[in-house]
Amino acid sequence: MSDLKKIKDEFLSKLRSKLDLSEVNKIKSDLFSKNGLITNQFKKIGSIPESERKKYATDLNAIKDELQDLITLKLNEIETLEVNEKLQNEKVDVTLPERPIARGKIHPVSQTIDEISSIFSEIGFSVEEGPDVENEYNNFTALNTPEHHPARDMHDTFYLDEKKQKLLRTHTSPVQIRTMLKDKPPFKIIAPGRTYRSDSDQTHSPMFHQVEGLHIDKNINMGDLKGCLNYFIKEFFEVDKIKMRFRPSHFPFTEPSAEVDIGYKIKDGKIIIGEGDQWLEILGCGMVHPNVLKNVKVDPNKFQGYAFGIGIDRLAMLKYGINDLRAFFECDYRWLNHFGFDPLDVPTNYRGLSR
Ligand code: DAH
Question: Are residues 69 and 131 in the same domain?
């Protein structure tokens, strides 16, 4: 029997038996390493008489291919086997009940922001963001509140530099400016976020939350504003009817301007929204002032619309019966555990907001 045939028979039978990874690798090296049996046969080609050389080389190549294919096949088989074994051993039974672990809670303010975003997104508002550190222009001047305007004093601003150019935004209204500067009308956005004023007592915190609303298009009027807020308050408080009143007010960036109160009563120590004859102020709003539109290069003869600013913390306190604003920011774990929400219970309009 020729050398080639001997090698072929020997290794084919070896490769047909059950092998593990290291055994296959050993065979591979026995045959194809620098001094492997097949490698050495190739080295011999030159010394084969010319008349036999061609046939020898053809046979050798055929054997080489056959053995190599078989080795590759074996290696694939072993790999598949290993993967299957791993899958089997590392299987997780998802039907097992969860282990009782202490889980974090969602803060009532975060929950309220999620609820607000969900409600407004249902009627076509998208969510915009702006930075906490603002410049004086976006926070005041562009919003039709020039230097020495009395409205500036009411904001108890935290300035960040001597020249009063940088500040912590005192409201979310500068996001109106940012949004209108970067895009073209129409605009239909809300902008929830943190706001800052130098003020602190039971109902005021130096850091608090607002959500800004802005809807600019060709035919927007006060009726649209009223309809939008009416829908929002009903959805937010999850009631069928509400009492709402618009009181004339003044904001430099809107004309006319109004503050909105909702009617409520206290029954058995609980606040009931939509009944009774007591009123609570929850937001400021109005039709966007033409000067604001001019400042962001929107033509007030073509476009108009409304804006509003709602205090988020106040809404959360009302809805969830929390009576001290300061508790929101004290990081008391027991408080959070009591008033917080399940992280898996994401609020949606169709499934219920706060259940
Ligand atoms: N930025 C006002 C504030 O913080 C609230 C506000 C009032 C926002 C009227 C508005 C608006 O967009 O139209 O007191």
Answer: no
- pLDDT digit string (tens) for 328-348? 999 898 999 999 988 877 777
Measured in Å, residue 251 CA sits from the centre of ligand 1 at 7
* Residue 85, Cβ density class (10 Å: 0-12 exposed, 13-18 middle, ≥19 buried): exposed
Task: Report the separation in Å between the CA atom of 253 and the middle of ligand 1, taken as the mean of its atom positions.
Answer: 8
Task: Judge if the beta carbon of residue 285 lies within 6 A of ligand 1.
Answer: yes
CB of 284 shorter than 6 A to ligand 1 = yes
Mutate to test the pocket of ligand 1, among 250, 253, 312 (most ligand atoms within 8 A of CB): 253
Helices and strands in the chain: count of H runs, count of E runs: 12, 10
Domain count for the chain: 2
Q: Which residues pair with 167 in a beta bridge?
A: 134, 159
> What are the pLDDT digits (tens) for 58-115?
999 999 999 999 999 999 999 999 899 999 898 888 888 777 776 789 999 999 999 9
Structural domain boundaries, residue 294? 108-341
**Binding site membership of 196 for ligand 1 (Cβ less than 6 Å):** no
Is there an atom of ligand 1 within 6 Å of 179 CB?
A: no
* Residue 308 Cβ < 6 Å to ligand 1: yes
Asked whether residue 349 is domain-assigned, the answer is: no
- Write out the two tokens for 336: 């959070």
Residue for token digits 């937001």? 283
Query: In the numeric block, which tokens belong to residue 153?
Result: 């004093």
Whether residue 251 is found in the same domain as residue 284: yes
| 77 plus 147 within the same structural domain | no
* pTM more than 0.90: no
351 within a domain of the structure (yes/no): no
Whether ligand 1 lies within 6 angstroms of the CB of 212 is answered as yes
